[in-house]
Amino acid sequence: MIKNExxxxxxxxxxxxxYKQLYTVSKDVxxxxxxxxxxxxxxxxxxxxxxxxxxxxxxxxxNDCETALIVAEEIxxxxxxxxxxxxxxxxxxxAATIEEIQKDFGEDVAHILHGMLRIRDLYAKSATVxxxxxxxxxxxxxxxxxxxxxxxxxxVLIMRKIKDTPYVDxxxxxxxxxxxxxxxxxxxxxxxxxxxELEDLSLKYMEHDAYYHIKEKLNETKRxxxxxxxNFIGPIDEKLRAAGLKFHMKGRTKSIHSIWQKMKKQQVDIxxxxxxxxxxxxxxxxxxxxxxxxxxxxxxxxxxxQSNPKRMRDWLSVPKSNGYESLHITVLGPxxxxxxxxxxxxxxxxxxxxxxxxxxxxxxxKSGQSGIxxxxxxxxxxxxxxxxxxxxxxxxxxxxxxxxxxxTPKGDLFKLPAGATVLDFAYHIHSKVGxxxxxxxxxxxxxxxxxxxxxxxxxxxxxxxxxxxxxDWLNIVTTTRxxxxxxxxxxxxxSRQALLAKEELDRKMKNKKLDYEEPVLMHTMTKLGYRxxxxxxxxxxxxxLDMNSVLEAYAxxxxxxxxxxxxxxxxxxxxxxxxxxxxxIQKKGAEGSDVLVIDQNLKGLDFQMARCCQPVYGDxxxxxxxSGGGIKIHREDCPNAPQLRARFGYRIVKARWAGxxxxxxxxxxxxxxxDDLGIVNNITSIIxxxxxxxxxSISIDSHxxxxxxxxxxxxxxTGRLQQLLKKIKTVKGVKNVSxx
Length: 740
What we know:
Helix 22 crosses helix 24 (547-561). The model is unreliable at 125-136, 363-401 and 566-594 (pLDDT under 50). The protein has 28 helices and 20 strands. The strands form five sheets. Strands 1, 2, 3, 4, 5 and 6 form a six-stranded mixed β-sheet that branches. Strands 12-16-14-15-13 form a five-stranded mixed β-sheet. By secondary structure, it is α+β, with helices and mostly antiparallel strands. The chain is globular and about 95 Å long. The protein has six domains: 9-206, Orthogonal Bundle (Hypothetical protein af1432), CATH 1.10.3210.10; 215-362, Beta Polymerase, domain 2; 402-478, Beta-grasp domain (Ubiquitin-like (UB roll)), CATH 3.10.20; 487-561, no CATH class; 581-657, no CATH class; 665-739, Alpha-Beta Plaits, CATH 3.30.70.
C-alpha cells in the first residue's frame, strides 16, 4: 500500500478502504490491468513529491478516490470517467503526460483528461467564476460532456468535506460557485439529488442563520409532519391496493434551500410555507403500461381529494429535455392543507435521481461504450445552445421548472420557457425575424408582440421590413436569448446613428469654418454634462442636444481655451449661505473617483456605491452594470448579491480598490442595548472624538427598557470602521452593534 508523508495514519487506513470500495463498484467495467497501472502512476507521483494538499488541506488522492465513487455510484459513469478522475492529479501535476495516459489507457481516458486540463487553465486565469469565463467554460465542457459530471461530482465532494474548515473565505467562494454554476448544471442534467445537496450546502455555508433556522423548525415539527403524512397516505394506500397496483409510497420533506426560496418569494416565515413536503407514489409497472398506471393513480387521488388545476404539472405526455418524467398534482388534504403528490414509475424515479446517465440502463444496453455514446447523445441534446450568450444567464433562463411547446404553421415543434412572448419566439427563430416582428397570428386571431404563448399554440410570426427594435422591447422579452439579441440590435443601431451624428457635426464645423480640436470637443462635452463620447453622439442623434447649440458651445470653449476670453464667476453674497452636506459628500466622492479598477485595468469609469450595502474602501467588492449603462459597486456579502449573480450573471464585472484618496463613505450601523441613562450620549461622544469620522444622523427607539436604532457615520475605510465598532461595543449597556 502507498506509504508517504502525504498520508496520516488515519488516511492510510482510509485510502485502503476506499480502493477496495472503488474496485468493488467498478470491477465490471475496468480492464484487468487498469488497477495496477493507476497505482503505479500515483506511486511515481508521490515519490517525486508532485502531489500536494489543496486549499482546504484535503488529501488529493483520497479526494480523487471519493470523487470517483460519486461518479460511479451516484451518477453511473464507467471506465473512462473513473480512470480520468483517478489520474487527474497525476496529469495535473506533471507526473505523466496525456500521451502516456493515451498509450496505457486509451484515447477515451486521455480525452477526458484533456478537457479537465483546459478547465484548470481557465481557473488559473480567475479563481472565481466570473462572467467572462462562462462561455469559454461551456466550450471546454462541450469537448467531452462527461467532464461536466466529473466537475459536479468533485464539487459535491468538496462541499461535503468543508463543513468545519477554518478557511472561511475559500469556503464562501466554493459555495458561491456551487450555487451559481454547478447546481444549475446538475439540474440541467436531471441530477436532482446532487443539485439539492449542492444548494443546501451552499445555503448552509453562505447563509448559516437561515439554514439552521429552517432546519430547527423542521426538526421541531417532524413528529406532527410524519403523523400527517401517515394520515394522508393511509386511505390512498387502500384504494391503490384495491385497484391491483404494485407500488410503494414515501413522504419527502422539501430541501432547505427550496423552503428558503419560498420564504423569500412569499415574504413569510417557515410557518407560512404551506407545501413543506411532497408525497411520492412510485409504481412497479411494465414499460407498456407506465402512463396508463400513472393516470389511473391520478384519477383515484383526485376522486378522493380536491385538486388545484393551476399547480398540475404533466411531464408524462411531454418529458423535460433532461429526460425527467413525472406527474405532479397538488390536492387539498385533511385539515385543509395543500399536499403535493408526485406520481411516477421505478424507471422514472431512477432517472429523476440519477439523471440522463440512467437512460441507457432502460434501453437494452447493459454497459460498454455503445451505452455511453447513446447516453452522451441525450446529454448533448439537453445541453445544446446555439446562441451567442454568456453561459450562466443562459442556464438561469433555460432551467425554469415550467416549459411550453408551440408549433409553426408547418408543424415544427419549439420549446420555450413558460411566460415567453411572441417576440421571444420570433427571436428564437432568427435575429432578423425578431428585429422585423410586428405581431403574430395564433389560430385565426392577430396578436401583438407582447402576447404570452401557451403550450399547443400554432404561431405564425408577422414581419415588416420597416420595423426596427425598440428600447421597451427589453421589457417584453423574457428569454436571455431574445434579450441579448435585442440589446445587440439596439447597440448596432445606436452606433450607426452616433456615426451619422458625428459626420454631421464634422460637416457643420467645416461649414462654419471651425477647426476640429479633440481636447476642445472633450471640454465642451463635459460642460454639457457628458462624460462618455458615445452618450454625447447618441444625444445628438436623438435630438436631445441641439446641433447649433453644441456648435456655439464648442466655439465659445475654443476661444476660451485659446485665451481669447476670460472666465469670470460672479460673486455671491454670504448672507444666506448654508453648507449643503450632500454637496460636500459628492465632492469628496469625486476626489476618489478613480480609487477603483473595474474589470481588468479600466479606470475613470462612471460608478456609484450601492446604497443597499454601502461599500467602504477595503471591502471585497464587485461591479454590477445597471440597465442605464452605469456601474454600481456592491460588497461581496451584499444581501442582494446572490439574486444579482443568479439573475444577471452576465452583468457582473470585477472590481478592486486601486488606491485611497481621502474619500469618505456613508455607513449605517445598527445598535441594540439597555436603555440606561446617558448611553446615547456616551455613544455619540465616542464618535465625536474619532478622527476623520463624522456622525450624519442618529435614530433611536426605546421600548420596555431596551433601545434599538441606527447611526449613519462618514468614514474612509474598513480599518477605521472596525476600530469604531470595537469602541462602541465597550460602552456599558450596548448589547450589539453591527454594520447594516
